[in-house]
Write a structure and sequence with these properties.
By secondary structure, this protein is mostly helical. It contains four helices and no strands.
């Protein structure tokens, strides 16, 4: 005898929660990828960045590049964990998004518009990861039940 295991049909709340987690995963990957590119630009000391002579949180442009590069790589890795709906990824995703917000706030004078955009996107990521309850998620990597 073979037993067939059927999973109950997802509720609207579970669909919403899973969608928000997928949104957060994709946006965190995008933020990570953009931070990687921004880090590479800063390490290469590109002329795209504005120099502010009397900025309180002034670092060397290469230092900012390494900060953004590391945050971007970690964000991209955590986004994969979010697609697997891992709890560690949700907690780490919020922490990385907070660090991305802080790093972009501190580097506002160097690339102001881009920093504001990444701060806003990171805010949406935090919201999407915090509003979902753990029990409402389905593993995004599994096959979904047919309706």
């Amino acid at each position: 005898m073979t037993a067939t295991h059927t999973r109950p049909a997802p509720t609207a709340k579970q669909e919403w929660a899973t969608g928000l987690t997928a949104f957060a995963a994709v946006m965190l990957f995008l933020v990570g990828l953009l931070d990687i590119f921004r880090g590479i630009m800063a390490i290469a000391e590109d002329d795209v960045f504005v120099t502010t002579p009397d900025y309180v949180f002034q670092f060397d442009l290469t230092s900012w590049g390494w900060i953004h590069l590391v945050l971007g790589v970690v964000a991209a890795i955590v986004s994969y964990g979010l697609l697997r709906t891992a709890v560690w990824a949700r907690v780490t995703g919020v922490a990385i998004a907070v660090l991305v917000i802080i790093a972009n706030f501190l580097s506002l004078p160097y690339y102001p518009v881009w920093s504001v955009v990444l701060i806003a996107v990171s805010g949406f990521i935090i919201w999407a990861l915090c509003v979902v309850e753990r029990g409402d998620l389905f593993d995004l990597s599994e096959e979904r039940p047919a309706r």
